[in-house]
Amino acid sequence: MAKKNVLVACGAGIATSTVVNSAIEEMAKEHNIPVNLIQIKIAEVGSYVDTADLLVTTAMTKTEYPFPVINARNFLTGIGIEDTKKQILEELKK
Amino acid sequence: MSNLVFDESVILLDVEADTKEAVLETVAQNLVDKGLVKESFVPAILKRESEFATGLPTAGVSVAIPHTDVEHVNQKTISVAVLKNPVDFVIMGDDSETTPVQIIFMLAMDEAHSQLTLLQKLMQVFQDETTLTTLANATDQTSIKTLLEEKLDLMAFEGGER
Fold first, then answer.
1. For a surface tag, which of A3, B29, B37, B110 has the fewest beta carbons within 10 Å of its beta carbon?
2. How many CB atoms within 10 Å of residue B107?
């Protein structure tokens, strides 16, 4: 399985993406999935359009990307977090 | 990297405001007055919130975690403001849906991609309805300080943990 490039983005690239990044890292390790996590600001996503496989973000984005986008707010509130994890996992396993 | 400032001076109670902008201005201006952030922090926080909302519909009591870029910060701190009446904030990741926020955790971070342990502990607080309710109903700054110091393990943090 090719190593997936996963963008983890929030508005500032400071707070929420740090938390989400770590959660995905842990999840990937747990399932033995090699993954390349890139923590960025949402405004920087454009420069990764050609290389990324997935975008996980806490910020809103209306832009259409050639890869799936998963909202990660649940990682912060804990509500519905298992569903979001499952969604991410499915993408990582593709 | 500076030490985290967390004392009574960054904990505000009974904050009265009608709009999220007024709330953010009050909380951010207090940090300017304390010299913890630069003047530019106030407009930066307002702008960031309008672009990337930070309201979180957490268990029982909704919170918001306004924050902005590191260059506006002199010394890192988490400012807590309990609102007298809930104020609507747009939900993070949404463009119009709002949540009635009762507690603001304004993050002033001085380094990107850092403070993972602290932020994870903060998110744990957001998932802990009892703690959020206690904070929302607190009547003095010191009880909030003590409770959050324990929940965020700040004593260890201030002791030099990175």
1. A3
2. 23
Per-chain mean pLDDT for chain B? 91
Q: What is the pLDDT of residue B158?
A: 52
H or E stretch at A67: none
Domain holding B43: CATH number? Answer: 3.40.930.10
Q: What pTM did the predictor assign?
A: 0.90
Percentage, residues of chain B above pLDDT 90: 77
CATH 1.10.3210.10, applies to A4-93: no
Q: Structural domain tally of chain B? A: 1
Q: How many CB pairs under 8 A join A and B?
A: 81
Nearest to A18 among B56, B93, B113 (CB): B113
Amino acid at B6: F
Q: Residue A60 is nearest to which of B65, B70, B93, comparing CB atoms?
A: B93
Interface of B with A in 79-138 (CB under 8 A): 91-95, 107, 109, 112-116, 119-120, 123, 126-127
One-letter-per-residue 3-state SS of A1-61: CCCEEEEEEECCCCCHHHHHHHHHHHHHHHCCCCEEEEEEEHHHHHHHCCCCCEEEECCCC
